[in-house]
Amino acid sequence: MEDIMQSYDSLLDSDPEIQAGRAQAAAQARAEAAAQTAQAVAQAKQETMLLIVQTRFPDLVELAKQRTAHLTPGQLDIITQQIALAPNEDMARFVLGDVAA
Known about the structure:
This protein starts with a helix and ends with a helix. The chain has one domain. It is mostly helical. 86% of the residues lie in helices and 0% in strands.
């Protein structure tokens, strides 16, 4: 019985349609994992930026949440640096206002 099962598995493994289906499923799984990872990275970067805003400019937290909700990780890096280096709240507000433009 085991020999029959191994032969059947071997036939399935060598079938081009089965291989294509497995490759497609694997590619889809990789794409979904990459999307989830990118979303988690963006969320972590936004949380870092909001922590800096909360620490330095607490009155701007809601504005920062609104203006940065849909930014890419790269954009969030730039905004985080600008907020961290802002000499005062007016400059931080300007940076956050510039995000919307």
